[in-house]
Design a protein that fits this description.
The chain is mostly helical and 107 residues long. The protein has one domain. The protein is 77% helix and 0% strand. Helix 1 runs antiparallel to helix 2 and helix 2 crosses helix 3. It is flat and about 45 Å long. It starts with a helix and ends with a helix.
């Protein structure tokens, strides 16, 4: 949970400092940060070893992190002061993530 809250705080800080990526980059950044924050610590503590994971293990791990990232992006965008409507961009990001997941599962 701390990794998720920390990643959201880091993203909020970066955006408040002027970083303006698109939703896809922001989602990828949040996903990567959450994966590193959780799996990195568990790997260092030798709780798990991602090098031994199967494709289905990776998908089972990535899906909730992507879901976290999409919600984080929606919240961060909703808190922006310009109040632009990002719903279409978020839907596009969700579709792109779904396409990538299908590709990963079916390849």
């Amino acid at each position: 949970m701390a990794a998720g809250v920390g990643m959201g705080a880091v993203l909020g800080l970066a955006l408040s400092c002027g970083w303006r990526p698109g939703n896809a980059v922001l989602t990828a950044t949040a996903t990567t940060g959450a994966l590193i924050g959780t799996n990195g610590l568990m790997t260092v503590l030798r709780v798990t070893d991602p090098r031994t994971w199967s494709r289905s293990d990776w998908v089972a791990d990535i899906v909730p992190h992507v879901a976290y990232a999409l919600v984080t992006v929606a919240v961060v965008r909703g808190l922006e002061s310009d109040q632009a409507d990002h719903a279409g961009e978020i839907r596009t990001g969700i579709r792109q993530c779904g396409t990538a997941l299908r590709h990963a599962l079916c390849s």
